[in-house]
Amino acid sequence: MLSRIPGTLLLFASLCVPALCSSQTPQPEAVTIGAGAVPLAGAWEFHTGDDPSWASPTLDDSRWERLDADKPWGEQGHASYAGFAWYRRTLDLTPESGTSPHFDLLIPHIDDAYELYWNGQLIGRNGQMPPDYPVWYLNVPAQTFSLGPVSRGVLAIRVWKAFLSSRDTGLAGGFAAAALAPAPPAES
């Protein structure tokens, strides 16, 4: 799946588009995607625990904590937390004129396993959730998932962080870097 995205897009993971990095009240992210990739950096809604209803696009997450997606939750007040947690973000995606309305999402390594939901529908996963999970996942590469032809929606990510081991500093968990919305290909 990753072969459809030019390798140079991984460079964009360290960039932050100012319109997407606001720490003010959460609003749908209005994103126009054209010739490059847009990192979905900045604050996401975040909640520890697990409830399947948290994937719903109609969920009121206004009282959830906000964490930056470009660093682990262990570095943001949740050191040594193991178990389930959810990230959510409302996006408003607009392709530039002449580009396809189909969008992909590049997810970097997430510690340890995750499920990805777009508008309440499971669209992908990496790893296994309890009770069928290994102790940890190491060196998992970034993955690409198709959002299809979209304009606006809620991206929800259910994360399972395995219990701490002797190799774990307690500062990991969840995102290691921000997700990317790569440019859709030009329409033929």
Task: Describe the protein.
It is built from no helices and 13 strands. By secondary structure, the protein is mainly β. It has one domain: Galactose-binding domain-like (Jelly Rolls). Mean pLDDT is 74; it is low at 1-34. β8 (113-118) and β9 (121-126) form a beta hairpin.
Distance between the termini: 21 Å
Q: What is the level-2 CATH architecture name?
A: Sandwich
| Count of discrete structural domains | 1
Helix content: under 10%
The first-level CATH class name = Mainly Beta
Topology, number of strands: 13
Taking Cα atoms only, what radius of gyration do you get, to the nearest Å?
A: 16 Å
Helix and strand sequence: EEEEEEEEEEEEE
Q: What coarse outline follows from CA principal-axis ratios? A: globular
Task: State mean pLDDT (0 to 100 scale).
Answer: 74
The CATH homologous superfamily corresponds to Galactose-binding domain-like
What is the CATH topology? Answer: Jelly Rolls
Strand residue content = 35-45%
Describe the main β-sheet briefly.
Answer: 7 strands, mixed
Number of helices: 0
Structural class computed from helices and strand pairing? mainly beta
Uncertain ranges: 1-34
Quickly list its features.
about 190 residues; mainly beta; Jelly Rolls; 7-stranded mixed β-sheet; about 40% strand; disordered N terminus
Topology summary:
Layout: E1 29-33, E2 38-39, E3 43-48, E4 65-68, E5 83-95, E6 102-107, E7 110-111, E8 113-118, E9 121-126, E10 143-149, E11 152-161, E12 174-175, E13 180-181
Parallel strand pairs: 1-5
Antiparallel strand pairs: 2-13, 3-4, 3-5, 5-11, 6-10, 7-12, 8-9, 8-11
